[in-house]
Structures are given as C-alpha cells and as structure tokens.
Amino acid sequence: MPPRKQTPKKAAAPKKPPETKEDFEEELKLMASQATDETWVRWTTHQAVVYGKAAALVVLMAVYANVSQLTLSPVYGQIAAARLHQRVIWSALFVGWGGNLALRRLLPFATIKLLPLVAAYVPMAQFFLFQVSGYFGAETGPAITEALTLAPLVALSTACVADILEAADLSALPKSIAGSVPGLSSYGLFKLAEMDSARQMSEQIGRSVLQTRVGLELVLAATYAIMARSKLLVWTLPAVLHAAFFNTHLITPMATNSLNATLNASGWSLIDRWESTTGYISVLDSHKDGFRVLRCDHSLLGGEWTKFERKIVAEPIYSVFTQLEAIRLVKVPGKVPDNKAKALNIGLGIGTTPSALIAHGIDTTIVEIDPVVYDFAKKYFGLPANHTAVIDDAVSWSNAARDELREYFDYIVHDVFTGGAEPIPLFTQEFLTSLRDMLKPNGVIAINYAGDFTLPPLGIAIRTIKSVFPSCRVFRENEAPTPDAVAQAGRDFDNVIVFCTNADPFTVAGAISFRSPVEADYLGSLARRSFLVPKHEVPESVFAVATKGKEKLGEEGEEADANNGEEDGILRANETEKLAKWHDRSALGHWAVMRFVLPSEIWQNW
C-alpha cells in the first residue's frame, strides 16, 4: 500500500503590524496592561513571602516562649516560672527590634542562620542551669534561666522579623503610622499566637513524646532548621547528641533509665512519669526512708509509707489526709449509716481520703481534672475501683450537675492544690455555693486550704467559706509555731482543714462536734489512730488580724488594702485578683518548703 501523502500544515499568518495611529496606541495599551499584570503578580507574591516568613517566625517565637515557661515549672513551680517571664520576653523583643542593624553588620552571615543553633542548644542549657536551681532560688532562678536560653532566641527572632519586614511595601499607608505598623502588628500577632498556643498545649500536652516539654523544644528546633538551612547546622550536633543520650528530661525509656541511675545513688527510684494537664507528674520511691510520693511539678500531691504493711488502706505520710476523714465523725441529726451514705471528693491526689471513704462502704464520686493523676493513683497507690470517676474541671462539672445532684451528698471533701498555690476558681463564693446545693441539709463538708498564715489569702478563703456555710470549725494540720519561729522562717505555711455544715450555728444542731472514734474508724491504720481526730483548732482572731491596716505586695512596692471590711473579704468569681496578687509570695514560700521536704536533686532531676 503506497504511503499516505502528507499534507503540510498551514503556517499561522503573521500578526499584522499596526498600520494606523489608533492601532499603534491600542498595541501599546495592551503591552502596558500585560506588563502591569506581571508586575502586580510579582509584587503580590513577593509581599506574601515577606509577610508569611515574618509571621512564621513570630508564631514560632510565641510557641517557644510558652514551652520555655512549661519547662521551668518542674524545677521552680508554675507561679514562680511565670512571675518574670513576660519581663524577659519584653526585654528580648526590645533588644531584638532595636539591634537588627547592629547584628547585620556584626555577623558574617544572615542573622536567621543563627536561630536553629540557639534553639537546638536551649534544652541542653536548661539541663545544666537546672542543676544550680537551688543556688539561684525561686525568686530569680526562672528569670536567670530564661535570660540565658529563651531571651537570645527571642531577640534573634525579633531581629530577623525586623530584617524581613524592611522589604514590606507600606507605601499605601500614611507616613505618620507606616513606621510603627510593622512592630505593632508583629507584637499583636505574637500575643495572639502566645494565647492560642498556650490553650492548645494545655489540651494536648503529653499525647506523645513529641508533645512533652523537651519534645516540643526539639520539634521547634527542627522547624527553625528547616526554615534556615545552612552549613552552620553541623554545629547543632553536640546539642542533638545531648538530647538523644544525656537529657533525662526527655521522657523516653533510655532517659528514664539514665535518670534512675542518678536517683538510685541518692536512695531514690523513679517509678513512672508523664506530662499532663496540671503539670509534670511522677511517682518516686525513697528506699532509705521507705515511702512513695506523687509529684506534680514542684509540689507533692501526697504520699504513703511503703515500709509499713498495707492492711485495709495505706499509711499516709501526711496527717492532713487522715484528718479530712474526720468528716465522718461530725455529729449531725439524722445521720445515715456508711453503707447508705454518698460522698463527693473534689481533687484526688494519691487518693488517701477517698480510698478510706470507699473502705468504709460509702458510695464515693471523685472529680479530678488530671487523667494522669487519676491513672497513677489507681496504678501505684491502690485507689479502689468501686467508685464513680469524673475526669473534668470541677467548676464546669458542678455548674452542669448541681441541679441533678441537688441535696444528694452526705459528705463533700474539697482538697485541691497545684502549682504552689490553691486554684482560685475553686474557692470562690459561686463555686462553694454550687457545692452547698449538692450537700444534704444535714450534710458535712471538709475543705483543705494550704496557705500561709502571714498572708491575707488564707483569711479571705476562710471568710468566703463561712459566707456560704453558716457553721464551721477551723483546724490546722500541725501545731502553730512560735512567733520567733515564724519571724525566722518568714512564713507560717500549713494545711488548714475547715469542717462545715448547713445548720444554723446558733442551734444545738449547728454546733460542730466530733464523736469519739471506734476501732472500725481507724481501718487498721497507725496513722489514723494518731491523727484521725483534728487537734489544733485555729481561733477566729487569727484570721481577723489580716483585716487590720495595709500590707505590702512584696518586691513590687505596691500597696493594697488587705481586706478592709466584709465586701473586700469575700472571694467572688469576678474578683479573683484578691488572691491572685498574693500568689507570688505564697508560691515562693511553698517552693522553699518543698526544697526542705525533699532534696534539691529530686526536684531538678525531673
């Protein structure tokens, strides 16, 4: 078959050149329009890259600021870690924004190439700085640590943002504000990212190793390395090796074994640890003294003796938890037997009090915000399974359940403490009122408040409790120290237990008294035999002292009325600053107490 004849394609007709003046002008307009479109696309793309890169650095900086503060809390406590945190950040922002030109002239390479190096070495620097936390102290230690770790990263990041935003086209803005817009916008984005990332971290912390404190620092360092790739990254190798093999704060099996090798030399063992809603949670055994404790950041949630045989319940190392069990001994009319009683326990710790209530046959509901605390209490402290567990914020739960559970409970135990201070929302008049609504008319509530007798918050808490519950008696865990001892220590920190009923205090039923315990009340426990009945009652006059005159707010030099009159002496939901402004001093005192209770190497080797 002969090949098919190929028909050549017709060439496109050449574009007809403009012949008239009008055609020529039209051609010029078309070319100008195309050039304008191409220029606008390039300009838009370039500006998007400028703002996107600057925004990414600002967001990374905000996230790292939150992670840095979280990393300090196991060593210094949440409140101490937050005290000067913002001042360190403001100083670094100011230095970075004002020093970007000096850095450009000083460095032989782009400033942004330093960011991965600084970010990589922060966990390593923190590790060594934590070893001297006892020398720094809780008042200045967090600021010193962040000045040497977080501040350089924030300053360099801010300088990079300033460098990048020099390419931003602000010609459309009035000259009077164009110069301040980049800085103000960057700071606004920083605060927004800081708040949002803090919320997300509180919800997601501990879901994986990479979502722990040091894990997040390593993820952020890797992100900086991706954004600023250079040959300088080879210098991060020592920091990477330290994180992989020597940083015991990274929660991996190898790091835990390494930490245990250090702790064993001091007579301690780390049984388990994880990070969760309320902080860094760990279980530790003291082989020398024979006890086990549950730690949350720089606080202890409770402990029990391991050197004594567990019979029905364990022997607690703190008497306050056995004294809370005296709620069963309060005389009330129409008291029901234990096997028909219902109890609510707000706050779990290791579960000493609820375990005892369950052992007595009381139908017990436990409300605990932290799932890891609940899990560890069951796994390592023998919390019985026959109870109702609610893993939720107590305020939210009480608001939702108060109508359904109105006058439902015979006993309510309120025992919450974290971060070196009491969680303020759980001591407001509104929250206590919701508990009163769930308490039977002849019910009893026991409230534990850990506080300093030399500061006003304890008096505010007691007056708030008494404004809700008409009949109360107040006890402290230990005997009151002498005035000389208080003056020497500079504090009088103790657990305060308040027993209250709904009865009129001026009636026979309203006068709180305790029946004498019988053998069954002790549950075969030596600690309960010694401490079950509270002994150290606190007179009303002790709390009245706080209402006189004014007290200074410590290093701020600011003065505030310490509770002038009844209106200022009640804690309400919209007036929580009454307690919050004193938290710094209370937390610093609690830090010192914890360093006395357990050796420094336990706290800094977390």
Tell me the number of strands: 15
Question: Quick check: average pLDDT?
Answer: 88
Total of DSSP H or I helical runs spanning 4+ residues: 24
Biggest sheet statistics: 8 strands, mixed
Shape by Cα distribution: elongated
What is the radius of gyration computed over CA atoms, rounded to a whole number of angstroms?
Answer: 32 Å
Description:
Mean pLDDT is 88; it is low at 546-567. The protein is elongated and about 115 Å long. Strand 3 (291-296) and strand 4 (299-305) form a beta hairpin. The chain contains 24 helices and 15 strands. It is α/β, with parallel strands linked by helices and 606 residues long.
SSE layout:
Blueprint: H1 21-76, H2 78-83, H3 85-98, H4 100-106, H5 115-130, H6 133-148, H7 150-165, H8 175-178, H9 181-204, H10 213-227, H11 237-245, H12 253-264, E1 268-276, E2 279-286, E3 291-296, E4 299-305, E5 315-316, H13 320-324, E6 342-346, H14 352-359, E7 363-368, H15 371-380, E8 388-391, H16 394-401, E9 409-415, H17 429-438, E10 439-452, H18 456-468, E11 471-476, H19 483-489, E12 493-501, H20 526-531, E13 536-537, H21 540-544, E14 550-552, E15 559-561, H22 577-580, H23 583-597, H24 600-604
Parallel strand pairs: 6-7, 6-9, 7-8, 9-10
Antiparallel strand pairs: 1-2, 2-3, 3-4, 4-5, 10-12, 11-12, 11-13, 14-15
